[in-house]
């Protein structure tokens, strides 16, 4: 799931950074708090339901929780949805590839 998500987001970022110089800086600022919001430093299970529902929109929460199941015996997060993660990966990867295919000549010229 992590590799598919990285590929999808990476393809979209490849296009966005090539077309818009400011996107690289904006992406760095937006992803700074991602370590805290992805469930790496804190357990999403221990949060109140209203916060958990908001954080479950982040596909990295699902990847981190699924990774924890491999390390901790008995840890069973019921909220993990591989379909959601692969869906986000597929959509972002497809959009990134379509835009790269459409604008590749413009990107190479600049």
From TrEMBL:
A single MF term (Gene Ontology): ABC-type transporter activity
Superkingdom of origin:
Bacteria
A Pfam family annotated for this chain is ABC2_membrane
Q: What is its main location?
A: membrane
Q: Which InterPro entries match?
A: ABC2_TM (IPR013525)
Give a GO biological-process term.
lipopolysaccharide transport
Keyword set for this entry?
Cell membrane, Membrane, Polysaccharide transport, Sugar transport, Transmembrane, Transmembrane helix, Transport
Where's it found, cell-wise?
Cell membrane
Q: Which GO terms describe its cellular component?
A: plasma membrane
Q: Which residues cross the membrane?
A: 81-101
Q: What's its membrane topology?
A: Multi-pass membrane protein
Outline the extent of the ABC-2 type transporter transmembrane domain. 2-69
Q: Which family does it belong to?
A: Belongs to the ABC-2 integral membrane protein family.
State what protein this is by name. Putative cell surface polysaccharide export ABC-2 transporter permease protein
